[in-house]
Design brief:
heterodimer; A: 110 residues; mainly beta; three-stranded antiparallel β-sheet; 9 strands; 0% helix; B: 117 residues; four-stranded antiparallel β-sheet
């Protein structure tokens, strides 16, 4: 199972919006709605930010939103804040009953 | 409060074995599937394995199949990962995570496994 494809890095200024893409195949991202997004700060454990493509867990800011079109999922962060600077990973359940993560995207808040 | 605490990591020689543990608290452990996910130094997350809530079904990433075994003791609220025939490329921080409907909603802080001679 190959990793999902994410851009290595994205950046934005405070207050701006950014979008991170996550491209897979019909066997994972395109084949179900079990796509999740995780935020990871350096030296910390990953934190669930979005699940089932577009749902936010309790306590997650509505500045974070998710969507999907075909084999590509996207995470959008609006109103960028300094604390959003982190690594972001997408994940998808697969047709093989396994899970696959993206390679990760480093978000820099300028 | 949900807590997952991994232990058992350390330095091991290539070809050696190690058993990781993940102590769970703050929720009914026996109700949930559980996962192991690893992260090599400076690299991304890689899913390793999943076990059903009652331990009746397990599944592994191809990279560890036949070498790693996931198990659990619901009486002790503990998840395990037995790692055999370790290779340098298994060097990583290993996280345990709780599953809720095909997503990992809570993660431990991880334990570092280093495979080196």
């Amino acid at each position: 199972q190959s990793a999902l494809t994410q851009p290595a890095s994205v950046s934005g200024s405070p207050g701006q919006s950014i979008t991170i893409s996550c491209t897979g195949t019909s066997s994972d991202v395109g084949g179900n709605n079990y796509v999740s997004w995780y935020q990871q700060h350096p030296g910390k454990a990953p934190k669930l930010m979005i699940y089932d493509v577009s749902n936010r867990p309790s306590g997650i800011s509505d500045r974070f939103s998710g969507s999907k079109s075909g084999n590509t999922a996207s995470l959008t962060i609006s109103g960028l804040q300094a604390e959003d600077e982190a690594d972001y990973y997408c994940s998808s359940y697969t047709s093989s009953s396994t899970w696959v993560f993206g390679g990760g995207t480093k978000l820099t808040v300028l | 409060e949900v807590q997952l605490v991994e232990s058992g990591g350390g330095l091991v020689q290539p070809g050696g074995s190690l058993r990781l543990s993940c102590a769970a608290s703050g929720f009914t452990f026996s109700d949930y599937w559980m996962h192991w996910v690893r992260q090599a130094p400076g690299k991304g997350l890689v899913w390793v394995s999943r076990i059903y809530s009652d331990g009746s079904n397990t599944i592994y990433a191809d990279s560890v199949k036949g070498r790693f075994t996931i198990s659990r003791d619901n009486a002790k609220n503990t998840l395990y990962l037995q790692m055999n025939s370790l290779r340098a490329e298994d060097t990583a921080v290993y996280y345990c995570a709780r599953d809720v409907r095909f997503r990992q909603d809570y993660w431990g802080q991880g334990t570092l496994v280093t495979v080196s001679s």
